[in-house]
């Protein structure tokens, strides 16, 4: 079913360690009977960000995900590898998340107040107790602030 996303939901895999998780999550979701995406994967998220910052794609953004019961319609699910009850995301994951959010928000005209943690409205602590509810929004805003600082410095150097 095609969807027009209007919300982004952020998750963690709840699995600690540095081992890549893309294929493990795909196999786990297949074993749970998740629907196969047009890209050929069973992962319920649209994207997975590994510890290295590499971004993997399970589903097209126009496909309904399988990442948040009762909230899959019109949302894009982004999962970060890791257990953020016990550890924090890597700098590479934060950089990748900020860029991914920037692109998704631009493509679908999604506002920052529509980036939510999975735990909102659900009985889960996902994306982890070590992250605040506003963490993903803050990561996105920090990228924008850094870009503006760079632009100001560049403009100052060009001004006689």
Q: What is the spatial order of strands in the main beta sheet?
A: 3-2-4-1-5
- How many strand units? 5
> Which outline best applies?
globular
Order of helices and strands: EHEEEHEH
Report low-confidence residues grouped into runs of 5 or more: none
Radius of gyration: 16 Å
Q: Please, how many helices?
A: 3
Query: Major sheet: size, sense and barrel closure?
Result: 5 strands, mixed
Structural class: alpha/beta
Helix content: 25-40%
Whole-number mean pLDDT: 94
- Separation of the first and last Cα atoms: 56 Å
| Percent of residues in β-strands | 5-15%
Can you give a write-up of this model?
Helix 2 crosses helix 3 (135-158). 32% of the residues lie in helices and 13% in strands. The protein has 3 helices and 5 strands. Strands 3-2-4-1-5 form a 5-stranded mixed beta sheet, with helices on one face. With 160 residues, it is an alpha/beta fold.
Keywords, separated by commas or semicolons:
160 residues; alpha/beta
Helix and strand arrangement:
Blueprint: E1 7-12, H1 22-31, E2 47-49, E3 55-57, E4 75-80, H2 91-108, E5 115-117, H3 135-158
Parallel strand pairs: 1-4, 1-5, 2-4
Antiparallel strand pairs: 2-3
């Amino acid at each position: 079913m095609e969807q027009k996303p209007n919300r982004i939901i952020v998750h963690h895999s709840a699995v600690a360690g540095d081992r890549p998780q893309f294929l493990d999550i795909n196999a786990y979701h297949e074993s749970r009977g998740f629907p196969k995406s047009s890209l050929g994967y069973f992962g319920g998220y649209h994207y997975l960000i590994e510890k290295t910052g590499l971004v993997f794609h399970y589903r097209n953004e126009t496909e309904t995900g399988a990442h948040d019961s009762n909230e899959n319609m019109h949302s894009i699910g982004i999962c970060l590898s890791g257990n953020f009850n016990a550890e924090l995301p890597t700098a590479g994951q934060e950089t990748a998340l900020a860029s991914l959010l920037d692109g998704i928000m631009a493509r679908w005209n999604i506002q920052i107040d529509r980036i939510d943690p999975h735990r909102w409205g659900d009985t889960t602590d996902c994306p982890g107790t070590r992250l605040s509810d506003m963490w993903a929004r803050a990561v996105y805003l920090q990228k924008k602030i850094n870009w503006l600082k760079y632009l100001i410095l560049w403009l100052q150097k060009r001004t006689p």
